[in-house]
């Protein structure tokens, strides 16, 4: 048998091993949140029923419309973004930190999987959780108002990009954190405030000019408006530029995740 043939067979075998390992790790991470719906799906369900009831119905009767859109429909995209990215971030950050804490992540690290395969499985599982929660919130909104997709391509594209981006950021957080309080702090005191100041409940045009310019430094503005454009066809920023920049950020963050895994950052004592 020639050396070239042996090399081809070795590459094919390695490819099958990588695919099998990827699917196995992905399945484990997905089943982790599917089997615990009380922790993963019930809280955002209850929270968003309250959001739609208080902000959409009660407050919406007073505000009426923003940019020609009923207020309850105007806030829906922002609530979808909040639920999707929070759950994507939480999934990777807590799972990786928990694996470090209880040392079972070593089973993954000692497997024949490449670092890209490991990161890909963690990120994809978290993105799936974020997408499921986003769809769940949209379905909740459908009980309160008429929900459609004016720009389905942008809706799906922004949904994929933002969940992958925050799943990747969750990997960084899971490797960096020294205890669970660090993760809670990131989610509650950094991530959520940025979303709430990202135009979820108000229009940028209602703000003073100076505040508008400062608000544009908040990346959540582009995510919320991108998803709003997908749902309503309305956006206060260029959706194409937003999608391009967010896609670049997502790719850069996932590449950083792979580099951190390769260096063993946070994974070794």
UniProtKB/TrEMBL annotation:
Keywords annotated in UniProt: Membrane, Transmembrane, Transmembrane helix
Principal location class: membrane
A Pfam family this chain is assigned to: ABC2_membrane
Residue span(s) of domain ABC transmembrane type-2: 35-264
PROSITE patterns: ABC_TM2
Membrane-spanning parts: 41-59, 71-89, 119-144, 153-177, 241-261
Record keyword Transmembrane present: yes
Topological type in the membrane: Multi-pass membrane protein
Cellular compartment(s): Membrane
InterPro entries found in the cross-reference section: ABC-2_transport_permease, ABC2_TM, ABC2_TM_bact-type, ABC_2_transport
Domain of life where this protein originates: Archaea
GO CC annotations on file: membrane
Name used for this protein in its record: ABC transporter permease
Lineage: Archaea, Methanobacteriati, Methanobacteriota, Stenosarchaea group, Halobacteria
């Amino acid at each position: 048998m020639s050396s070239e043939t042996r090399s081809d067979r070795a590459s094919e075998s390695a490819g099958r091993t990588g695919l099998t390992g990827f699917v196995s790790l992905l399945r484990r991470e997905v089943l982790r949140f599917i089997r615990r719906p009380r922790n993963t799906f019930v809280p955002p369900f209850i929270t968003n029923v309250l959001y739609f009831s208080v902000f959409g119905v009660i407050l919406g009767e007073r505000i009426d419309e923003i940019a020609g859109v009923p207020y309850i429909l105007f806030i829906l995209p922002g609530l979808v973004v909040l639920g999707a990215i929070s759950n994507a971030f939480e999934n990777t950050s807590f799972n990786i930190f928990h694996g470090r804490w209880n040392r079972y992540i070593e089973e993954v690290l000692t497997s024949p999987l490449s670092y890209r395969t490991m990161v890909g499985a963690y990120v994809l599982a978290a993105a799936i959780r974020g997408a499921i929660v986003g769809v769940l919130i949209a379905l909740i909104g459908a009980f309160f108002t008429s929900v459609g997709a004016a720009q389905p391509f942008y809706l799906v594209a922004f949904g994929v990009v933002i969940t992958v981006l925050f799943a990747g950021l969750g990997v960084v957080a899971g490797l960096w954190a020294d205890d669970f309080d660090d993760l809670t702090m990131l989610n509650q005191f950094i991530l959520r405030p940025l979303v709430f100041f990202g135009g979820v409940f108000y229009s940028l045009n209602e703000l003073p000019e100076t505040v508008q310019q400062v608000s544009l430094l908040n990346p959540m503005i582009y995510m919320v408006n991108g998803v709003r454009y997908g749902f309503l066809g309305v956006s206060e920023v260029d959706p194409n530029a937003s999608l391009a920049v967010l896609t670049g950020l997502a790719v850069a963050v996932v590449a950083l995740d792979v580099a951190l895994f390769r260096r063993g950052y946070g994974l070794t004592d």
